[in-house]
Every structure is written in structure tokens, then in C-alpha cells.
Amino acid sequence: MELDPVMLSRIQFGFVVSFHAIFPVFTIGLASYVALLHGLFYKTGNPAWERLAGFWVKVFAVVFGMGVVSGIVMAFQFGTNWSNFSQATSNFLGPMLSYEVITAFFLEAGFLGVLLFGRGKVPEGVHLFAAIMVALGTFISAFWILSTNSWMQTPAGAELVDGRFHVTSWGEAIFNASFPYRFTHMALASFLTGGFVVAGVSAWYLLIGRDVEANRKALSMCMWLLLVLTPVQAVVGDAHGLNTLEHQPTKVAAMEANWETGTGVPLLLFAWPDKEAQENHFEIGIPRLASLILTHDINGEVPGLKEVAPEEQPPVWFVFWSFRAMVAMGMLMILVSFIALWLRRGDRLYRSRPFLQTLRLMTIAPFIAVLGGWFVTESGRSPWLVYGMMTQAEAVTPSLTGWMVLVTLIGYVAVYAVVFLCGGYYLTRVVRQGMLSEPPSDEVQTAMRPLSAADATFEADAGRTLGSQ
Amino acid sequence: MELINLSMIWALIIGFGIMMYILMDGFDLGVGILYPFAPDEEARDVMMNSVAPIWDGNETWLVLGGAGLLAAFPLVYTILLPALYLGVFLMLAGLIFRGIAFEFRFKSRRNRHWWNRAFCWGSMVASFAQGVVVGTYIQGFAVENNVYVGGPFDWLSPFTVITGLALMAGYALLGATWTIMKSEGHVQEWAYRITPKLLMLVLAGFAVISLWTPFVDDFVRERWFGHLTLFWIFPALALLCAGMIWRSVARRREGQPFVATLGLFLFTYLGLVASKWPYLIPPDITLWDAASAPASQLFLLLGVLFVIPVILGYTAWSYWVFRGKVRGVGYH
Fold this sequence. Notes:
The complex is a heterodimer of chains A (about 475) and B (about 325).
Chain A: H1 5-44, H2 47-81, H3 83-117, H4 124-153, E1 158-161, E2 164-167, H5 170-174, H6 179-207, H7 212-247, H8 249-255, E3 262-263, E4 267-274, E5 279-286, H9 289-295, E6 301-302, H10 316-343, H11 348-351, H12 353-362, H13 365-379, E7 384-386, E8 390-391, H14 392-395, H15 402-433, H16 460-468
Antiparallel strand pairs in A: 1-2, 3-6, 4-5, 7-8
Helix pairs in contact in A: 1-2, 1-4, 1-6, 1-13, 1-15, 2-3, 2-7, 2-15, 3-4, 4-6, 6-7, 6-12, 6-13, 7-8, 7-10, 10-13
Chain B: H1 2-34, H2 41-51, H3 55-72, H4 74-83, H5 85-107, H6 112-139, E1 143-144, E2 147-148, H7 158-182, H8 185-216, H9 218-225, H10 233-250, H11 256-276, E3 279-281, E4 285-286, H12 294-321
Antiparallel strand pairs in B: 1-2, 3-4
């Protein structure tokens, strides 16, 4: 079998960026939550808020650290696998990505240390300020990355001269057509991720009866937040979809697996899109619903995939099913949030074991939704890398051969598997240790890096002795 | 004219960033390379604790250099990375493993020996890969129409293996003299003992590379044996630094060996830059050819000029906080 460097590079980039993305998506939401907890403690003086803040900042530290480690690779992927793309777009991409790096460093240098290690050493007001700045910084980082990505979806403010983009207007390039929608959608996704993880962990603590007062507060707060944000996210997602329909109709056609342009298009609940045959098998759909959702008119016209040649169509089944995974998770999150509202009567929210168990499982839902959403938007752009201007095949490194990409792909999978297993395992140790008071430590606190803010031990037996103290 | 100035400023910034990276990550990578040779576990604790608070700050320069290169000199970025494809992967894998080893070794008891291994192997692989990058850079690239056209293993040659090993020895020397400065007692005595041996290794590597380089690259030969002789000041100063290392170790000075090693690296680095200047990728691509659009260079410059003082200040502050000898190592 011929190894295709373009396809393998896409898989490799998709793998490393998906693996990396789950960390910042979580930390962005969590940073705001930590800032909120610090604010509540500052205002009310209730020590429960401080305990919660102290615990969640440790989780934040570990996840942030893993995000940094996995992110180093990203800075090199553009050059190793997509050198033609990097060369063509460097005038825009270079400064944008560098600004993201600068933001992250500035954040780490200025405020992260104070947030992680300042407890009891700086006045609470300063601590709160650091927490707010870290939360703000995570959004500014996301701003640069999402703007860059949006520019690749809806390029603007640049002209292509001799195979290289030159920025004609930074304002137009940065605030391109799809950016406001993508940024809002993603920011809300971060809040939902943070919210469901906090809710899930709080639920678990309530199930085992640990620090009930603080965790009830945390759970209640999360569920109010999610009750508002989950429906809002659906509305924003709809607006994002309309924006995509305007600028990238083929992507929307793939999301709906709609081959022929037509009116009164049904919403497919199940289908097996077959690109070779240019049609779907086993269709089950609700009549006219896709038209209604996409055009807000029951007889509205929805573009079809056949508007473009088959080689300009994205991998339809992948986009179609990723989109359904995202939407299904979104629906589930809305449902759970409303059930929580109903369970508030008589405090069943804190006592219903089936519901608390459900919340534990729901921790994974926002991550599936986020990855599904990114799969849709990234492979839905295929075969374009810069939409309408540069294809993936043009963008790939010319000297690359299939086996080189395959070898490094396997390598990255192996490296990330180790990082993920160690990090994930350690995170469960931090959570199990929970909000216990600081363990008696015989070690000197030497380091001031993100991961060293957490003080759980790596092995279970050592942790158990701590837990029993 | 403005274009020239902006590109020059960027060349200085990135050159400075790379030098900071080599000097600063160099000694903490070196500590990792020396790990298996340490006399006992206590020495390993001291060594790791001496770099633990600052190593990740050191690596910020690598990421800044990578991103800055894409922004300011995209041609270098898009030729170097494809040419070094497999080497870059090895370097990143090494850096990641030693990065997580830093964190988890402290928190681990039963599995500590695994983290020791990850730390040591990660450091060695990353250092070797960086030396290979330097060697490949000296050796040159097959470039046509601003695109790398060589094979996947062009970076692996007897010459680049030598530069890889030489940089490992150099980093180990930085690590050893750093350990002299940060430790006391038997750990320091051990570091004093190995420093002269490492210095001999480094000088041997230095000699082999210096004699070999004119044969792998015509441009460099012309530069060194052509009309301009001013460049010879760099190797001369580097040798002077080597002499200072030797003497200060013999006199059991604590800080001088490390400072002299920094000097050795600095002058070797400047010598390398002088070999190629103003070409970034000889024989055709100068730093002006490799530059991005002036508007892009300027756009980023504003942010960088603001943030570099902040990073420098933060770095200085962390070194100040963790100054002095490493004492009171826990984990009993």
C-alpha cells in the first residue's frame, strides 16, 4: 500500500492537536472558575470557598502543565509537516502564533506563580488579582489561536503575491468573518467543560461523603451555570452554523450529508454517506427539519455536496458523524442541566445517587463534544487548508515521504500515551487526595512550576497513608 | 533601508534567544547527562533540585525561538524543520520525557528509578539531537527554489554524529561546573574531579570539528582562510576560557568554572555565527532573503520588545530566589 504523506500528516496533526486541545479547553474554563472561587472567598470570607479554590487550583496546575508539555510539539508541526503552508502564510501565522507564545509566557512569568504558590504569602486581594489575570490570559491565548484558525477558514485582510500571503489589514485578518462565532462557541465550550468536570468531581465527593458543605456549594453553583450556558451554547452553535453556511456551504452540506441542493431538506438522524456513490445508504430523517434549522424556513434551500466536484468534497461520513456526536453530547448536557433544576426540589440534587453517578459519567461529555466539533470544522474544510486558496496537498512539506510521517506518528502516539497515562493517573491521585489539608511534608518545596503545585504522591500506597492521616 | 534594520533587529533577537537557550537549557540538560555517573542517590537529588526550579523557564527560549523564527525568518523555519524532520522528533520526545520526569520523580518513591532513566535518556537524546542540528547547519542543506530537497537522513553523517557527541560533552561540562557551584561536600568533590575530563572531551571535539568543518563546507573554509582574519578572535577567546576552567578547577574555585564554561560556549557560538554571517542558509539565502514581510516583523516586534524584559526580569528573579547551595534535600 502506498503511504500518502498528506493523509498521514493530516492524521498526525489531528492527533497531536486533539491531544493538546483537551488540556487548554479544560484549563480555560477552570481558570475562570478558580478566579470566581477566589472572588467569592474575598467577598464572603467563607472558608469553604477557599478550600475549593485551593483544591481546584491544584487540578488546574497539573492540567496546565500537561498542556504546556504537549503544546511544545505544536510549535514545530507547522514546519516539519506543512512547510509550504508555513512559508506561504508566515506573514500572518508567524506573528499570530508568536503572540500566543508571548501571552502564555507573560502569564506564567507574571501571575501563575502568585496564583499557585501565593496562598498565605500575598494579601488575598493580590491573590484574587493574579487569579483573574490568569483567567484573562487563558482567553487571550485562545484569542490568537482561534483567530489564526478562523483566518484559515475564512481568509481576509491578506493578498496572495507570488505564492505568499501579505497582510493588507491586520484588523480584517484578525477579526475575520468566522472568528467571532468560533471564539464565542469555543469560550462557552470551555466553560461547559470546566463546569461538567467540577460538577462530576463534586458529585463523586458527595457520593463518598467528603467535605459535603463545600461540594454542595460547588455542585449547586455549577448546575446553575450550566443551566444557563448549555442552551446558550445551542443558540451560539446555531449562529456559528449559519455563518458556516454563508462562507463554507460545502462543509454544511457534509455535516448534513446532503448531496443535492434543494428545498425542504430533511434532517438525517442516521445515514451512511458513500462518497464513491455520491449518495447515502440507510437514511432515516425528519422531513424538512434541516431546512428549518439552517435557513429558519421550512422550505429553505440547503446547498448540496454535488455543487463541487467529488475531489473537492470533504470526507463526508467523518464530518457527518462527528457533527452528530457533538450535537448528541450537547443535547445530553442540556437535558442533564434541566434535570438538575428539577431535582433541586427537596435537595434531591445532592442526594440522588443515580443522578450523582450520571454527573460523574458526564465529565467526559464536553470533551467528546469539543473534539467532535473540531473534527467537523477541520475536516469539513478539506481539501482546503486555507479555504479556497491553498489545498492540503499544496501545503504539505515536499520532501516528506509517507513512512517518515508514519514513523513519527507512531512515535508521537507512544510519547503522548506515556504523558497522558502518567498525567491522567496522577490527576486521579490529586482528586482522590481531594481537599484534605496539606499533607505533612518532609520535602523542601523547591520548585515553582505548574505541576509542582500539586502535592499528591505518585504511587497509590503512599497516597493511602496520607489519606488515612 | 527600513527592511534592513528590522531584519537586523530580528536577527539579533533570535540570535540572543538561541544563545540564551543553549547556555541555560545546556546546564540542566548536562545535569541529566551526568545522572548515571553520579556517585549516589543523594548526589542525584542535589543535582536535580539545583535545576528543578528553573529548567522550564530555560525552555521558554526554545519555544520563543521556534515561533519567532517562523514569524521573522520563515524560510529558515521551513527549510530547517523538514531537513531535520526525524531529528526534531527525537529532540522533542527527549525534552518531553525529561520534562515529565522532573515533575514525577519528586512525587514518586517506588518508581523513582524509572523517572531517573527517563530524565537521563531524555536529556541525552535531546542534547545529541541539538548537536546534530548544529552539525547539519554547518554542513548545509540541499535547497532548490527555497524548498528543502534533500533526503530524510541527510542530517545523519559522521560529521553530525561528532557534533552531536561534542555538544553532549559540552552540556555535560556546563552541568558539572553548575554542580560545582550549587553543591558542597562529596557531590562537589565529584564534580571537581570529572570537570577536567569533560573539558578534555570538549576540546577534543572542538579540535575535530574545527579541522573537519573546512572540508564539509566551502563557504566556511573561504570565510576562515580568506582575507578576513578578525574572526580568529572568537576561537582564541574560547581557548582562553578553557584555560580558565582548568585553572579555576585546580584552585577549587566555586563559581569561576561555570562562568568560564559559559564563556567557552558564548565564543564558540559567536565563531559559528561568524562562519556564516550574513547568510542564514548558505550559499544563497541571507537573513534579508529569509525575512518575512516588514509589516509582519514590525507587528510582532512591538510585543516582543515588551515581553523580553519581562521574561529576563522573571528569569533573574527566579535565579535570585533559588541562589546559593542546594541543601536539606528531603526524601528519606
